[in-house]
């Protein structure tokens, strides 16, 4: 059992099931487009962590159950 989302994401990262996107990405269209491509990969694709969404100070996680 995980204590919080950060703990869950850290476990995915350790198991190489998390893709970190370090480049600034627009939350208006780019995050949705990247998530759409990732979730259509056979097996559901990796979880995604957008570390620098444009205009925001907190990261965005998506496809965490992919």
Q: What keyword list fits this structure?
A:
66 residues; alpha+beta; 3-stranded mixed β-sheet; 2 helices; 30% helix; 17% strand; globular
Walkthrough of the structure:
The chain is of the alpha+beta class. It contains two helices and three strands. It has helices at residues 5-14, 30-39, and strands at residues 18-21, 47-50, 60-62. The chain has a three-stranded mixed sheet with strand order 1-2-3. The longest helix is centred in the first third of the chain and has 10 residues, at 5-14.
SSE order and pairing:
Elements: H1 5-14, E1 18-21, H2 30-39, E2 47-50, E3 60-62
Parallel strand pairs: 1-2
Antiparallel strand pairs: 2-3
Following the backbone from N to C, one meets helices and strands in this order, namely HEHEE
Number of helices: 2
Distance between the termini: 18 Å
> Which overall shape is indicated by the principal axes computed on the Cα atoms?
globular
Mean pLDDT: 96
- Got a strand count? 3
- What is the percent of helical residues? 25-40%
As a whole number of angstroms, the C-alpha radius of gyration is: 12 Å
Strand order of the largest sheet: 1-2-3
How is this structure best summarized?
The chain contains 2 helices and 3 strands.
């Amino acid at each position: 059992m995980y204590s919080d989302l950060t703990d869950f994401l850290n476990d995915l990262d350790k198991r190489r099931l998390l893709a970190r996107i370090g480049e600034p990405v627009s939350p208006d269209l780019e995050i949705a487009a990247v998530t759409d491509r990732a979730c259509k990969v056979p097996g559901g694709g990796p979880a995604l962590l957008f570390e620098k969404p444009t205009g925001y100070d907190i990261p965005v996680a998506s496809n965490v159950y992919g």
